[in-house]
């Protein structure tokens, strides 16, 4: 094992990873670990919670920290159960778009509405990748997938905007082609209370790139070219930036005041 | 136990009070009749005692909050009814696989579907037992008096802790809304989950009867908890058949090998029984009342089951040996009767007494009448 400064955050027994070559998950993991280091977060007091899907495997088993790997869609309620009982722990959820916004969408909206003290990182690779590249809640209109072979007839959910509208303290969206901005957003989110949501639009070389004959590098160039600042996007472009940047008290603070008062 | 307080409680309140006495300090739930009074009681009482009450967005979130809270050292519970219980099956399976202590109370109502919302039934027995996918076993207990609502809830919480398992308490609407005097002990015995002394695997145990020690979060264990197949250290093993077999068999054995310890029942007049009755929950009260009605006419032996899974076989085998016939009254089309038939093994006829009345109890008189017919 090389002397890479981030290796101390990883479990040697979990390496090399099972991610496909060119997968965006490694880039997201790197940005997050650098952000954790910059925010001087004590990893011993940090718990990662994940559901099911490729992105859920980022923390479990790779991160050398406490992690819970539970059912598809249920990471957010599990994480908030931990946070309610042990408010001193940093609780971070990592999952994919199907996990967080599809099957777990109800939990996501209500956690945002409550301003529940969690950081949720959603890796949006546009499809259900682990199960074979089926259409998902974030799949672009018209994109062919294994269950929409004639193109996706539906329109995608703008998850970052939904979460911001629901009441989250902090919401940002970047792509794997914006690693510096992503890391900054994660550092900012780590320093906040309440509900914080960071979406990362990512390439899936196996399930999207394969179908479109697009290499990982081409996919990242595609992401960079289509990413536009908030309010300046055209059709089929990706709006990036901060969708909410508030400093409202988190739910735990309110619950604590109620208890003490 | 030294009893020093008498309380007049409903079954639902007694369940909540039993949970508090056992040390339950976390409740997450979603409103549904006829279980709501448990939730409302906890909403009032837990904050006063430093505990946590949370109303979730649905029953799925509720049970996953329990799983998270349990790993964060809470003794958690929730209460629900039919449709909510169906939604919680997913979380119950995850709790089995991750060996997470928690209590789910299902106050049974008439199903299927949304059925009759606040009418008593006993149609969830086999769901409590087999509702999850995969091979798994969850202890199931059923009180038949308000006193037992208190006592069995304490027992259920302790079993959950000691064996690191989810536990189900099956109540029913009739019992939930019956008010009776409860003798409340000054103190109850509380079990605590096993904790690691030093570097012990959190998902492996040399003694299959014992739960492995459960580490705390935030202490530098770099704990891996997964509901996928895992080795004793929690590392996911998705392709080794031996690891899967070993884990699934150990999780089963942990409950099954403790079945005598978990077995609770009350046998009344079994030795002289001409006719036997096997019942649980509110129906057991009618069985005992029918026995009284028939005093001097037919000698009735009654086995009241308080543990429903693992199934207490010994008292039923004995009843079937002694009685001419065994009657199984239940507020369903017949679920308990399958087990009684299995255990009786043909040593006497097993007579079904199903009633699906949407809240109408099995009356002692109709049961006594049937006993007389069977006794002929």
Notes on the structure:
The complex is a heterodimer of chains A (261) and B (376). Chain A has 261 residues and is an alpha/beta fold. Chain A has one domain (23-260): 3-Layer(aba) Sandwich (Rossmann fold), CATH 3.40.50.970. In chain A, 35% of the residues lie in helices and 20% in strands. Chain A is built from nine helices and ten strands. In chain A, the strands form two sheets. Chain A has an eight-stranded mixed sheet, with helices on both faces. In chain A, strands 5-6 form a two-stranded antiparallel sheet. In chain A, strand 7 (170-175), helix 6 and strand 8 (195-201) form a beta-alpha-beta unit. In chain A, helix 1 (25-38) crosses helix 6 and helix 3 (97-103) packs across helix 4. Chain A starts with 24 loop residues before the first helix and ends with a helix. Chain B has two domains: 3-185, Thiamin diphosphate (ThDP)-binding fold, Pyr/PP domains (Rossmann fold, 3-Layer(aba) Sandwich); 265-375, Rossmann fold (3-Layer(aba) Sandwich). The relative contact order of chain B is 0.13. Chain B has 376 residues and is an alpha/beta fold. The longest helix of chain B is centred in the middle third of the chain and has 18 residues, at 146-163. Chain B starts with a strand and ends with a helix. Chain B has helices at 11-22, 36-48, 59-71, 82-98, 125-130, 146-163, 173-176, 241-256, 259-262, 282-293, 314-322, 336-344, 364-375, and strands at 3-10, 26-29, 52-55, 76-80, 102-110, 116-120, 140-141, 166-172, 179-185, 224-226, 265-268, 275-279, 300-305, 307-309, 325-330, 350-354. In chain B, strands 2, 3, 4, 5, 6, 7, 8 and 14 form an eight-stranded mixed sheet that branches. In chain B, strands 11-13-12-15-16 form a five-stranded mixed sheet, sandwiched between helices. Classes of the chains: A alpha/beta (261), B alpha/beta (376). Chain A binds chain B through residues 11, 13-14, 44-45, 47, 49, 60-61, 64-71, 74, 76-86, 88-89, 106-107, 110, 258-259, and chain B through 26, 28, 47, 52, 54, 56-58, 60-62, 64-74, 76, 90-91, 93-94, 98, 217-228, 235-236.
């Amino acid at each position: 094992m090389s002397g890479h400064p981030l290796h101390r955050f990883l479990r040697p027994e979990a390496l090399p990873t099972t991610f496909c070559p060119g997968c965006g998950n490694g880039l997201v993991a790197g940005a997050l670990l650098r952000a954790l280091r910059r925010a001087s977060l004590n990893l011993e007091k940090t718990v990662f919670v994940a559901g099911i899907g490729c992105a859920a495997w980022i923390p479990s088993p790779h991160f050398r920290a406490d992690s819970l790997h539970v059912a598809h869609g249920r990471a957010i309620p599990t994480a908030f159960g931990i946070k309610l009982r042990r408010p001193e722990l940093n609780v971070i959820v990592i999952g994919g778009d199907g996990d967080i916004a599809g099957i777990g969408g109800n939990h996501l909206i209500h956690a945002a509405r409550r301003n529940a003290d969690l950081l949720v990182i959603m890796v949006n690779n546009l499809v259900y990748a682990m199960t074979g590249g089926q259409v998902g809640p974030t799949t672009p209109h018209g994109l062919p997938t294994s269950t929409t072979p004639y193109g996706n007839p539906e329109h995608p959910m703008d998850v970052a905007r939904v979460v911001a509208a629901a009441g989250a303290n902090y919401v940002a969206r970047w792509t794997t082609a914006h690693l510096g901005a992503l890391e900054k957003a994660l550092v900012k989110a780590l320093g906040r209370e309440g509900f914080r949501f960071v979406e990362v639009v990512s390439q899936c070389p196996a399930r999207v790139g394969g179908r479109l004959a697009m290499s990982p590098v081409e996919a990242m160039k595609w992401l960079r070219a289509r990413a536009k600042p908030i309010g300046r996007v055209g059709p089929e472009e990706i709006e990036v930036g901060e969708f909410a940047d508030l400093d409202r008290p988190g739910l735990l603070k309110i619950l604590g005041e109620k208890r003490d008062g | 136990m030294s009893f020093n307080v008498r309380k007049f409680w409903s079954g639902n309140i007694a369940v909540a009070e039993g949970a508090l006495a056992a040390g339950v300090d976390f409740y997450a739930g979603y409103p549904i009749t006829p279980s709501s009074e448990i939730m409302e009681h906890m909403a009032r009482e837990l904050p006063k005692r430093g505990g946590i009450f949370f109303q979730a967005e649905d029953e799925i979130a509720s049970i996953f909050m329990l799983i998270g809270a349990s790993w964060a050292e809470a003794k958690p519970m929730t209460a629900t009814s039919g449709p909510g219980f169906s939604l919680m099956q997913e979380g119950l399976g995850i709790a089995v696989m991750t060996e997470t202590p928690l209590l789910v109370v299902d106050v049974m109502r008439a199903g299927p579907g949304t059925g009759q919302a606040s009418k008593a039934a006993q149609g969830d027995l086999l769901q409590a037992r087999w509702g999850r996918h995969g091979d798994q076993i969850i202890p199931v207990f059923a009180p038949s008096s308000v006193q037992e609502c208190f006592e069995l809830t304490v027992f259920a919480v302790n079993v959950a802790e000691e064996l690191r398992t989810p536990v189900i308490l099956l109540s029913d609407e009739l019992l939930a809304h019956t008010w009776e005097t409860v003798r409340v002990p000054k103190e109850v015995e509380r079990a605590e989950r096993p904790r690691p002394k030093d570097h012990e695997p959190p998902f492996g145990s040399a003694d299959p009867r014992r739960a492995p020690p459960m580490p705390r979060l935030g202490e530098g264990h770099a704990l891996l908890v997964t509901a996928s197949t895992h080795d004793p250290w929690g590392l996911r093993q998705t392709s080794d058949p031996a690891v899967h077999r070993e884990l699934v068999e150990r999780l089963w054995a942990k409950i099954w090998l403790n079945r005598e310890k978990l077995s609770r029942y009350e046998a009344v007049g079994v030795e002289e029984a001409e006719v036997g009755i096997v019942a649980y929950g509110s129906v057991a009260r009618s069985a005992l009342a029918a026995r009284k009605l028939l005093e001097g006419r037919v000698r009735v032996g009654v086995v009241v089951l308080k543990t429903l899974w693992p199934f207490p076989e010994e008292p039923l085998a004995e009843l079937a040996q002694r009685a001419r016939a065994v009657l199984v009254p239940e507020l369903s089309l017949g679920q308990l009767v399958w087990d009684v038939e299995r255990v009786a093994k043909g040593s006497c006829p097993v007579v079904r007494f199903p009633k699906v009345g949407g809240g109408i109890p099995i009356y002692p008189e109709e049961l006594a009448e049937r006993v007389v017919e069977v006794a002929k």
